[in-house]
């Protein structure tokens, strides 16, 4: 199903409803939060893997209209007229995702957090080559290409496969081990419930393929209020303490795209408790390149 957005851009609203052949990706707009150089390098390496099949341009930032517009323009320079925007985010349920959908024209109403994201983007551009005082950071971008937006990683089976690989990498005796999948999580209670629901699907997929004693899942919600963070910390420690009391070993598997800070917070929360943590997050992994291509192709 195709929909004409208010910006004049043709947009595909739902791949699930699209008839085969209506939207076929000629290029991929890979959306990523961005971070330290090492984090960004892993995303660019992933993009390079996909680029051997489809033209890819990366837009770093949290609903950063400038980087998104620049990436769309680069795809246009590569003669791409049909774009699939693939959010390399853990979850589709976040203010960043909703703001990005608005900027791409697939969401009618701007979320309240868009103003904060716009200020953040403007501050980073200030004094640089992209500093344009007339640039409007809060309106949907203009493009002549057909743009479709997919879901984030959510509960995709390939994500479950990667998480299971990370657990097995540090496993010694699965029958005596309890795996705890830990994600950052959102501030909103409603969004957090949706994150946990998708994590539950991932965990069920993992359970069907392993002999681990048990697999738990929860979020630590770093950006929430102090009471919510403290409650999340207590819940995480309780799971680990309970496993230790059962005489089980604990394997912590962070549901993160890349290490670089959040996993350190998980370690601080578990100070004094025995556990083993996965050696890496989802990136790098060739299966994520497969996921991007699957997202970018109408089945």
Strand content: 15-25%
Q: Quick one: overall form?
A: globular
Number of domains: 2
How helix-rich are the residues, as a percent range? 25-40%
CATH architecture of the largest domain: 3-Layer(aba) Sandwich
Distance between the termini: 14 Å
Secondary-structure element series: EEEHEHEHHEHEHEHEHEH
Report the structural category. alpha/beta
**Helix count from the secondary structure assignment:** 9
CATH level 1 name of the largest domain: Alpha Beta
Biggest sheet architecture: 6 strands, mixed
Q: Which stretches are poorly predicted, pLDDT < 50 over at least 5 residues?
A: 1-24
Overall mean confidence score, pLDDT: 88
Describe the fold and architecture:
The strands form two sheets. A six-stranded mixed beta sheet has the order 1-2-6-5-3-4, sandwiched between helices. Strands 8-7-9-10 form a four-stranded parallel beta sheet, with helices on both faces. It has helices at residues 37-51, 65-77, 95-103, 114-125, 157-169, 189-207, 226-245, 262-269, 286-295, and strands spanning 2-4, 10-12, 27-32, 56-60, 82-87, 146-149, 177-183, 214-219, 249-255, 276-277. It has two domains: 2-153 and 286-295, Rossmann fold (3-Layer(aba) Sandwich); 157-277, Rossmann fold (3-Layer(aba) Sandwich), CATH 3.40.50. The radius of gyration is 20 Å and the shape is globular. Helix 1 (37-51) crosses helix 9 and helix 5 crosses helix 6. Strand 3, helix 1 and strand 4 (56-60) form a beta-alpha-beta unit. Helices cover 40% and strands 16% of the residues. With 299 residues, it is α/β, with parallel strands linked by helices.
